[in-house]
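Ligand: heme C. Inputs:
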Amino acid sequence: MLFKTPWPMETEKAQLELKARTVGKIVGKLGLLASGLGESDLSAGPEFAASLAKEANFYWLSANVLDKNGKKPFHSHMLVDVGGVRVGLFGITSTLTGSAPGQQGLAQSEPIAVAREEIAFLRPKCEVLVCLSHMGLAADQELARQTAGIDVIVGGHSREMTTEPIVAGSTLVVQAFSQGKYVGRLDLDMPRVPGVPPTWHFVRSGQAPPADPKLSRFTAAFVALDKKMGEDAAIVADIKSYNEAVAKLVVSAKPPAGAPPVPGSTTPTQQPLGPPPPAGTFTYWGVPLCASCHVEQSKFWEGTVHARAIDILKKKNRVNDQECIGCHTTGFREPGGFDIPARMAGFENVQCEACHGPGLDHGKGSMAKRGSAEATCRRCHDKSNSPDFDYAAMLPIMSCPKMQRAPK
Ligand code: HEC
Ligand code: HEC
Ligand code: HEC
Ligand code: HEC
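Predicted complex:
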């Protein structure tokens, strides 16, 4: 819920922590009661996650995360009274890698065994038992198979969407999907017969419920939190103050020793980019150099919106936002590109090399092909930022003129 990865880069940590605090504040205002703890909630350490939940007045639940003394740093479970019904909740967390900076010193116990202990403790005390799992859909179904007594598993982690709840024996399995894009609503109608596991019946919308009073019924709905939902003034204000704080954020990071020109930081998310280029290598050449030979193509490019893609961020005071600049510039977080907003100079806009690849590859004969590849466009024209993008229709609009080749 809080972070997009357990390994934030050094250069993005400050912004992502601001964002996590904003998310915490907002879910508190939405009335969140409890959340299953996931590995990406620990990116700034367990104390950060705990203090944020305390401020926002919700609980992290995790019965299988242990600190270095073998104690549980978060609540395992809680019992709440919802309109006269006793509901038990417990949390199970996915496998921690231990190598992520926020997970140092944490250990884990085996999830199925822990779940069985929680069920044994909670089942006699509640009428409905819910597991908040952060293990992924496949593991959630396995958990349902290997235990008895959980009524509902609400899962996260694998970012899958279950448009319909999965009935796994006497347990319903649903998923929270990702990034608060949906609200799921599950209505349960269960006969009060203690000790008898429910036999579930899905009442789809428009259908009549079954006549048999011994059956447990459920209805399910997914509500997209998109633009149609409208805005909430208090939450808009929180987002505005987050954006203002990001605009003022000063990110300064030394380029790592012996790694010219700017290969970024050395956190695991960046390592797969490969070894830094040798000193003195110019990976990115920039428009002026490309234009010095490709005059016609440069004139064409000057006339496209790509040549001004940074202006819209400037106008909105978002040039300092690391979650925006990647697609409105060239070479962000690429070897030889730039790593922090303060080093953006020369990399503004969607330049030649954003499509054709860095000048370093010039002369290999690959640049025209890369420029027109669908994957090149889709890296920026993705589902969330360019939902109506039609590659076949858009490609001709952005194709530079062919070179005039001397006859052989
Ligand atoms: C994954 C790449 C990507 C990221 C990240 C991205 N943008 Fe964009 N942005 C685009 C693309 C592509 C377009 C052109 C979309 C179109 O017209 O279909 C665009 C267009 C825009 C526009 C003009 C069109 C409009 O919707 O009004 C604005 C403003 C904008 N982006 C702001 C932002 C801000 C603010 C952020 C950070 C929160 C951001 N962008 C992050 C790729 C991105
Ligand atoms: C939006 C992506 C994009 C940008 C930005 C872009 N190009 Fe292109 N470019 C293309 C596409 C697509 C083609 C057509 C490729 C084809 O027909 O195979 C092309 C064609 C070319 C060609 C002709 C290749 C040939 O085989 O004749 C050259 C040269 C070229 N671009 C140079 C540049 C230069 C220089 C810039 C920057 C000033 C630039 N391009 C910016 C996408 C881009
Ligand atoms: C010194 C002049 C010069 C500069 C600078 C230069 N090019 Fe070229 N470029 C050429 C010549 C000459 C060719 C044709 C020979 C060939 O195909 O390699 C060419 C070929 C190309 C092609 C088509 C061949 C292929 O690889 O698909 C593209 C695309 C291209 N250049 C893009 C760029 C971009 C982008 C830049 C800036 C990073 C750039 N060029 C800088 C001279 C230059
Ligand atoms: C590095 C990111 C990036 C890449 C790569 C990229 N674009 Fe864009 N594109 C943008 C952004 C950002 C905008 C919005 C610029 C603005 O409105 O200020 C945009 C705008 C456009 C627009 C005008 C707005 C629209 O959607 O009608 C077209 C057309 C377009 N791009 C086509 C392409 C095509 C085709 C490719 C691949 C050959 C491509 N782009 C590659 C970032 C990118």
